[in-house]
Amino acid sequence: MKTLAHSQDKNEILRRLETLRPDSPRRWGRMTAHQMICHLNDSFLGVTGRRDISPATSLLQRTLIKWIALYAPFRWPAGVPTRPEVDQEAGGTPPSNFAADMAQLRSLVELVTTQRGCFQTHPIFGRMSEAQWLRWAWLHMDHHLRQFGC
Predict the structure, then answer these.
(1) Where are the alpha helices (DSSP H) in 48-129?
(2) What are the φ/ψ torsions at residue 69 (nearest 5 degrees)?
């Protein structure tokens, strides 16, 4: 399984990220490529406790749905709603400078892959181990990079 814990997988996802352009067309959803970068930044800021994200969890989401999302052998579906604090059409950080926002994302990826103990509780999946967080991070980035054909 791919995860940001493996340097090969991390390097692959960062190479894919470098192919993204501000005008990359989306395959689904409403976000622009730049909004997606800000969404990933907001999500990583939430992972590390640098941005508050409101919880919306249940026993089913913390158990079965989490297991399916992290370990089932299929891709995440398009159109799953996100929390308002990381929704670029609600309370998410608005895009400003594409290059700066990309640099922040690369920096946040580096932070979560090198700094131990920085992970918070997931707003939907609840408590997760570091291994689960790094699997989630790879899957989340993969999902949105595929959204833009990267």
Answers:
(1) 59-60, 66-71, 98-114
(2) -60, -40
Asked if the structure places residue 100 within a domain, the reply is yes
Query: Which residue type is seen at 134?
Result: L
Determine the structural domain holding residue 42 and report its residue range. Answer: 7-20+29-147
If phi > 0 it is left, if psi is from -120 to 50 it is alpha, else beta; for residue 126 that is left
Is 0.90 topped by the overall pTM?
yes
Joined together, the tokens standing for residue 80 give: 């799953």
Q: What is d(CA 90, CA 83) in angstroms, rounded to the nearest whole number?
A: 9
Per-residue pLDDT tens digits for 38-61: 999 999 999 899 999 988 888 988
115 in a structural domain? yes
Instruction: Specify the number of domains making up the chain.
Output: 1
DSSP annotation of 86: G
